[in-house]
Amino acid sequence: MPEDTPSLFGPEGDQSPRPSRRARPSLSPRARELSSLASKLPRGLHLGTSSWSFPGWRGLVWDAEASETTLSREGLRAYGTHPLFRTVGIDKTYYRPAPRAEFERLASQVPDGFRFLTKMWRGAMEDDARTSSNANTPSTALDARVATIDCILPAIEGLGRKAGPLLFQFSPSNYANPRARANFFQRLDAFLGALPTLDANGSAFYAIEVRDRNLVEAEFGELLARHRVTPCLTVHPSMPTLREQSQVLALDPMRPLVMRWMLRGNLAYSEAKDLYAPFDKLVEADDPSRDDLAMLAAAALQAGLGAWIVVNNKAEGCAPLSVERVARCLAARLEK
Length: 336
Fold this sequence. Notes:
By secondary structure, the chain is α/β, with parallel strands linked by helices. The protein has two domains: 21-83 and 256-336, no CATH class; 86-230, TIM Barrel. The chain has helices at 29-32, 35-38, 68-79, 100-107, 129-132, 144-159, 178-194, 218-226, 242-249, 269-276, 287-302, 319-335, and strands spanning 45-49, 87-90, 115-119, 163-169, 205-209, 230-235, 257-261, 307-311. α8 links the parallel β5 (205-209) and β6 (230-235). α4 packs parallel to α6 (144-159) and α11 (287-302) packs across α12.
């Protein structure tokens, strides 16, 4: 672990006054009113957002105004009491690894039954800027030993039973060339085969998300099924619809369903961020994606499988409101 790795909760040397117990973020009355809706959803459903430290969620999630730093450090306790939230994405671990102690602190702040979706460090999947710009730095891309030591073991040991999907997210790429796809599948096959087998009685499992529609083919689904790895279906401009992804990848009927609602098809990430900030309201509803999420989750839950839905602010403008919309749509389907 690099010595300069920052804390998930802000800079190590941050000497700003810690908020008092009274000043800690608490859940808003509006959020508490969603308990009735939550009671209509099965325990096998894990709904949540891709992070939690957004001041714009005041009134929707948070009861009072709080800074991003305060929410990053103190907000997870309140987030974990939200009636609809039973998961959250740990996104910062995509940009650098985190030690076991960081995960232990996260796990201590949420109730039993809560499960984290943890993104693995991108350096375990592809060369980052430091590696690609320095010929003397060995590549860590698809190195199972690096992924195990730097990413997997700290997460599962630190989170324990609160670990959920361990997500390997591959950046947008171009695999239109069949030879490039074949090479990627070959390397991925060897990588997955070398990862440690997770405890069959535990809650953690591997998931993979790609951002290239050319990879959505039967061979990719078969590769993942062979290693008992769950494909993470994603709403993203670079991908087909969720329904198309689910049909082509032939989802494993013995594995949980994992879906992420990231970014609507008509915007780039930076455009959505500028348009939707501070993420306090629904800006552009995406009903087709909402309906697909609910339809696929209902099928998985009715089959006795777990279902994970993680929503980003860039999906419609406000992740908590998008989660609520999915929840209502799913509850209506399950009541039929």
